[in-house]
Amino acid sequence: MWNIILTDLIPIFVIMILGYISGKRGAFSEENSRSFNKFVLNYALPAALFLSIVKGDREMLFSDGKLFLVSLIVIMGCYFWSYFSCKKFFKHTKAEAAISGLIGGAPTIGFLGFAVLEPIYGGSATTGLVVAVVAIVVNAIAIPAALYLLNPASLQQNSAATAATAQNGAPATATPPKKSSNALLNALKEPVVWSPIIAVILVLCGVHFPEKAEPSFDLISKANAGVAVFAAGLTLSAHKFEFDKEVIYNTFVKLILMPALFLIIGKLFGMEVEKLQMLVLAGALPPVFSGIIIGSRYQTYVRTGTSSLAVSTLLFMVTAPLWIWIAQLVA
């Protein structure tokens, strides 16, 4: 576990602090942060999501229906719990709640999945199966759902109207909300949505992605995590760091509620012991970086989301060994 902390978690803080210091010293501005996030969201992240899914095969996806079903129930259940909590309890907008759902309901399985599971459970096919299934639920279901609820085109339209109002001095006029059908189309236009969906379709159709084509995607996908974490630190430097009841609540949902639900529901479904232990630890991972990237890109739920990511990543060092012990004891 100390090896995981030293090699995987501490580098996250180092890069985030580097971005924070760079922002405070004026080396990069908040506008640069938005440019970094736009690059990650439109290019690096879609390539990483596509490559992580398309490496699988159809037999692997259908080899364990319990694993997929438990992952789907818990991840989407936590997503919508965080979504409605953000709207009802903390009185945020629908768009902000869409990002909050990713903070509380989606683990960063693509970035830390193998790094955390392999040293403990080995690099077996079971490890790859757990990472792949959770990644598909997060990337091909949770993120598209968040983009649908966020409705980026409507946000951009409102931002443009606000900017025009400020420039012309005219009274602000409310922009009518987009219809649901338009929101769905807007979500499907985003590369971060259609790239994992295409990857899943290719896998389900049995299309083998050529290995010689992987380096073309792999090169840009490697920039995803580093640039995203640096941009998160840069974004945090432009906003006051907050540690309030909402950050505590988001951290509780992600690090305590989600792995607990994985353990309880997985036990009820009669999952294999080793798979259940891996799934619990995967659920205890910090929030998916995609939530911060998408929020920063559209200037939605930025300060609370980034603060929640920082606190969750720090406390993961404490909760991960705890969940490893509990999962071994109960499963």
What do these coordinates show?
With 331 residues, this protein is mainly alpha-helical. It has a single domain (2-24, 34-156, 179-330), classed as Up-down Bundle (Na+/H+ antiporter like fold). Helix content is 80%, strand content 0%. It has 16 helices and no strands. The chain has helices spanning 2-24, 30-54, 58-62, 65-88, 94-105, 109-121, 125-150, 152-168, 180-188, 191-204, 214-221, 223-237, 245-268, 273-283, 289-297, 302-330. Helix 1 packs across helix 12, helix 6 crosses helix 14 (273-283) and helix 15 runs antiparallel to helix 16 (302-330). The longest helix is centred in the C-terminal third of the chain and has 29 residues, at 302-330. The protein is globular. It starts with a helix and ends with a helix.
Tell me the number of helical segments per DSSP (H or I, 4 or more residues long): 16
Helix content: over 70%
Characterize the biggest β-sheet: none
> What share of residues are in beta strands?
under 5%
Radius of gyration: 19 Å
Q: Regions with pLDDT < 50 over 5+ consecutive residues? A: 160-181
Q: What distance lies between the first and last C-alpha atoms, to the nearest angstrom? A: 20 Å
Named at the architecture level, the CATH assignment is Up-down Bundle
Number of individual domains? 1
Order of helices and strands: HHHHHHHHHHHHHHHH
The best one-word shape is globular
What is the average of the pLDDT values?
Answer: 81
Given helix and strand content, the structural type is mainly alpha
The top level CATH class name: Mainly Alpha
The total count of strands amounts to 0
**CATH-assigned fold name:** Na+/H+ antiporter like fold
Which oligomerization state do the chains in this entry correspond to? Answer: single chain
